[in-house]
Amino acid sequence: YCHRQISILEKEAKGQGKDMDHEKKPYKTIFRELMGPNILPLTRKAKVSLRGQLEELVGAGTEPVAHALRIITYHLYTNPKILQKLREELAPLDTSKSQRVNLETLQKLPYLSTIIQEGIRLSYGVATRMGRVAPDRVIVYG
After folding, report:
1. N or C terminus of the chain: which is more exposed, having fewer CB within 10 Å?
2. Where are the alpha helices (H) located in 1-131, listed in sequence order?
3. With contact defined as beta carbons under 8 Å apart, do 60 and 2 qualify?
4. Could you tell me which residues come within 8 angstroms of residue 102 by beta carbon, excluding any fewer than 6 positions away?
5. What is the pLDDT along the chain (142 residues), one digit of tens a residue?
6. Which residues neighbour 118 within 8 Å (Cβ) at sequence distance 6 or greater?
7. Cβ atoms of 54 and 2 closer than 8 Å
8. Are residues 50 and 34 in contact, defined by beta-carbon separation less than 8 angstroms?
């Protein structure tokens, strides 16, 4: 993926792309923003340097998410009661192929949100500590 994006950026930089004006692109991407005039010095826009930076960005955006999903999946399938409660919360949603469930609807599901937050907390993908939240009781540490 990174190689393809770099190739597209190189063509645009040489004037071979569809739209050479950085500010008038139909959509912004991290790749185009990195090539913008005020983001990186020219020495950091070299093909090798740019490829490394883009691979790091893609890796940072996928591996922590994948790990959190592995943690969540493991805990759901090793705790049948939790999985059943999640399925009960999700059951009323229309999940047919003709009707997609929107993000706002999913964000309003308290048990799903709790499971996601706990999976993120247990995974290594978060750079800062996430505290436990118990709105209905006091948590005592130590």
Report:
1. C
2. 2-13, 30-35, 47-78, 80-90, 103-107, 110-122
3. no
4. none
5. 566 766 776 666 565 545 445 455 456 676 667 666 666 666 666 665 667 777 777 777 777 888 889 999 999 999 999 999 999 999 998 777 667 888 899 999 999 999 999 998 888 755 556 566 777 888 776 6
6. 72, 75
7. yes
8. yes
